Amino acid sequence: MRDIWIDCDPGHDDALAILTAIANKDKLNILGISTIGGNQTLEKVTTNAKNILSFVRADIPLAMGQKGPLVKCLEPSDEAHGESGMDGPYFDHGDYPLASKNAVNFMYEKIMSTENKTIIVGLGPLTNVALLLKSYPEVLDKIDCISIMGGGINHGNITSLAEFNIYVDPEAAHIVFNSGLPILMAGLDVTEKAEITVSEIESLKNKGKVSHLAYELLHFYNKSGQQFGFINSPIHDLCAIEYLLKPEIFGGNHYYVDVNTNDGVSRGHTFADKRLVSEKGKNTLVLETVNREKFVEVLINALEKLDNELVSK
Ligand code: BDR
Ligand code: CA
After folding, report:
1. Which pLDDT belongs to residue 240?
2. Pocket flag, ligand 1, residue 40 (CB < 6 Å)
3. Contacts of 179 (CB under 8 A, 6+ apart)
4. For the chain, what are the domain ranges?
5. What is the pLDDT of residues 171-188, one digit of tens each?
6. Is the CB of 165 within 6 Å of ligand 1?
7. Contact 288, 189 (CB under 8 A)
8. Atom of ligand 1 nearest to the CA of 14
9. Any idea which residues carry the catalytic annotation?
């Protein structure tokens, strides 16, 4: 059993990552979930997180984090996830309780009061995580590693070199990559291979309540992905969770990875030092391959498990 904290900005793929983590409670103990302004405003992504958690009647602490990045301003976009940040399904499940403390303080207290070391899973811009590490350096000893969806050592999506989560807050990402903690990086190198096909999406329709919710999320997400040239849908954020559940379905290499924080065309670029010997050591496991069928199977099984649990609740 591993203790994890999920920091996220739901987001269709964030939602599927959260659901998969919840379904695997025999392997992952979710200490809490925090939200960060990213895909959409902090208010919108927090509403989305509440909706997902209410839908499956979860009992996981939820806290709101930072509204936006450390240095620049947040510029949310409707392109990938719609106006709400998680368009598609309609939710009417009432309100989910929110912690009264800011996510950074809340995360600190939870992580420090737990016996095991915690794995932080970052599915959005890394602002909350960077603030945690900088505000409370003693927390470093209580963190096992940081599993992120972010970056890409070969290409970007928001610019030709930068991936969205890193691009939104490169200064925060720079702090995290240089924290001394081991980084598991599910960047575009692997996440664009972690696709669900249109027929696999269709197979979720009317299957069970949670599977159908995933269908509605993926149906919208697939349509919006077409404007970026995708036929199938890469479920980026799910990789950062699935690696913790089934590392054997992924392949990757250890590199020294850092983040470009300069203004200009390469702002937010995560670059890897591929020399055999790097003076800075190898801080990051960069995931580069995934067994796509097995990846989708883990998701489908998780949704089915939640379908059954919801029936008996
Ligand atoms: C990342 O950006 C967001 O749109 C997704 O939720 C994912 O975290 C992919 O670049
Ligand atoms: Ca995300």
Report:
1. 98
2. no
3. 133, 140, 146
4. 2-312
5. 999 999 999 999 999 999
6. yes
7. yes
8. 6
9. 236
